[in-house]
Design a protein that fits this description.
By secondary structure, this protein is mostly helical. It has 11 helices and no strands. Bound molecules: heme C (2 copies). One heme C (HEC) binds next to helix 8, helix 9 and helix 10.
Length: 243
């Protein structure tokens, strides 16, 4: 336990020194569309059999302990987990606990690449209990409506495409679905939403639901931009576990 605490403290110091975050801008800003998207690893099945385990981790979560565990994350995800409006670091506040736990365990298992974050979130730094704790803390944080927004130039396309292709999973108000591990997208920063949508379309975020890969396949960058813009403007609903 002391070793873990020590490592978390060390990670916090590194963040404080700015060694981990000096690059500022995301290493993967919106990349050009690829002609041949790499296939997801064949052994991976989206959320296969893990769902019950992840829900149990959340149910055992202690938000007060989670607040302590989050100290080492603040250098990047900022106080109150509000992320950065330039999209380099996502908001985690108010995200569904199940989603947070799935993403953290996927990063630990190597299913979602996140080299910057791994030293702060790998096995040995965050154990199973810490992950449940931090998720139960983050999901209860308020989501203020001052997230980074898109240019607002083609919201009609964004809305039409969102309602047609995305709302069935992410909800008509962008509220996601905790039980199904579908992320909430309202209140999130535009540039992060855009980067993730592009990465999922192009097969770079390998832990994504293959049905989302299918739905976004062939959509041009301009449509994804309108979609992310529209999502970033969806009204933020009440927060907490009952959303
Ligand atoms: C060095 C910077 C850094 C630190 C420290 C860091 N993260 Fe992250 N985290 C990131 C980046 C960058 C992303 C987005 C990666 C991407 O664009 O795909 C991210 C993404 C996430 C996500 C996925 C969010 C989503 O919407 O899918 C979760 C959950 C997360 N971080 C939790 C944490 C927790 C908990 C900690 C502390 C234990 C932490 N992070 C520390 C950089 C960091
Ligand atoms: C079949 C359900 C489904 C559909 C349809 C779907 N998504 Fe997703 N989406 C998901 C899941 C599940 C994830 C999280 C994947 C994972 O576990 O990493 C996700 C992740 C995302 C993310 C990243 C969120 C975050 O916090 O990291 C964005 C942005 C997104 N989807 C946008 C869209 C858009 C835009 C559409 C419509 C064009 C769409 N999705 C359609 C299921 C879906």
């Amino acid at each position: 336990m002391n070793v873990i605490k020590g490592r978390i403290a060390l990670a916090a110091v590194l963040v404080a020194l700015g060694t981990a975050c000096t690059s500022g801008a995301p290493t993967r800003s919106v990349p050009p569309a690829q002609s041949a998207a790499p296939a997801a690893p064949s052994a991976y099945v989206w959320n296969d059999a893990e769902a019950d385990k992840l829900r149990t981790m959340l149910a055992a979560g202690d938000p007060a302990r989670g607040e302590q565990a989050f100290i080492s994350c603040r250098g990047c995800h900022r106080a109150q987990a509000l992320g950065r409006p330039d999209g380099s670091y996502p908001r985690l506040a108010g995200q569904h606990g199940t989603v947070l736990i799935k993403q953290l365990t996927d990063v630990q298992a190597g299913r979602r690449a996140n080299e910057k974050m791994l030293p702060f979130a790998d096995h040995g730094v965050l154990d199973t209990r810490d992950i449940g704790d931090v998720a139960s803390y983050l999901t209860r944080l308020p989501v203020p409506p001052d997230n980074g927004k898109g240019p607002g130039t083609d919201l009609a396309t964004g809305q039409a495409q969102y309602d047609k292709l995305c709302a069935s999973c992410h909800g008509t108000r962008g509220e996601g679905d905790a039980a199904k591990f579908y992320p909430r997208v309202s209140g999130q920063h535009f540039k992060y939403l855009l980067r993730e949508t592009v990465d999922i379309r192009d097969g770079r975020r390998k832990n994504a639901d293959p049905r989302m890969v299918e739905v976004t396949r062939g959509l041009p960058d301009a449509v994804l931009t309108s979609l992310a813009d529209y999502m970033s403007r969806l009204p933020v609903g009440p927060t907490g576990l009952t959303r």
